[in-house]
Amino acid sequence: MPGRQAKILSSADVDDLLVFASCTRNPLRNRVIVLLSAKAGLRAGEIASLTWDMVLGPTGQISGIIELRDHAAKKGSGRCIPLHPDLRATLSEWRKVSTQSEYVAESERGGPMTPLSIVVWFNRAFRSIGLKGCSSHSGRRTFVTRAARIVHKAGGPARRSASLAQPTERQPREPSAASSLPLANGCAAKPQGIGDRPYPLSEQNVNIQR
Fold it and tell me: Of the candidates 100, 104, 99, which has an alpha carbon nearest to the alpha carbon of residue 83?
């Protein structure tokens, strides 16, 4: 939909999508796709690139978060996303019956689905359930909007909900005057007592409920 934002989905709209998914040839996988969009805010390309090691914990069970790696995220900006209970349960079911493919959204021919095939799937789904102005991006907009409402009700800043959809880039720190003091050998002095500060973790504790 060039020039227009995809419409936000209501809870009933998401339920209709899940009903449509249940009537397809691959109902469980397609349910995962819907929930990854609406309950985790993933783009079509990110869904296509999502691998099992990003959702599994060290014991091989479904983890409590999605660790979206840089190579799978848009513009190489990975992030951690809390798993909605419905999505976690569906991923667990899908894991039991899917093949040993590396990718979560596996195509019927084997290997990953392409981003285009996921976009086409959503377009067909929205036409079938009679929703206009919606696209594969509608689920993501729905997720971000609901996250912002939850954070606002809790009294937190809006940037916290935004970090679930896209992490804030680190701004380079200005060098201090002491750090640029030259030494006799031409090296720069390092201020005593100042070490490398760990980059603060992005917000991971917002659990998006329907």
Answer: 104
Provide the pLDDT confidence category of residue 2 given band limits of 50, 70 and 90: low
**Do 144 and 160 form a contact (C-beta atoms < 8 A)?**
no
Give me the long-range contacts of 177-182 (CB less than 8 A, separation at least 24): none
Residue ranges of alpha helices (H) inside the chain are: 11-22, 27-38, 44-49, 85-97, 115-129, 138-153, 158-165
Q: What is the pTM of this model?
A: 0.72
Fold of 11-144: hpI Integrase; Chain A (1.10.443)
Q: Report the amino acid identity of residue 17.
A: L
Burial of 172 (0-12, 13-18, 19+ CB in 10 A): exposed
Cβ atoms within 10 Å of 156's Cβ, excluding its own: 14
**Torsion sign across C-alpha atoms 40, 43, 44, 48:** negative
Give the integer Cα–Cα distance in Å for 149 and 209.
11
- Band (20; pLDDT cuts 50, 70, 90): very high
How much is the average pLDDT of 43-49? 96
Q: Contact at 8 Å (CB) between 58 and 101? A: no
How far apart, in Å, do the first and last CA atoms of the chain sit? 26
How does pLDDT run across 179-209, given as a tens digit for each residue? 344 444 444 444 444 444 443 444 444 444 4
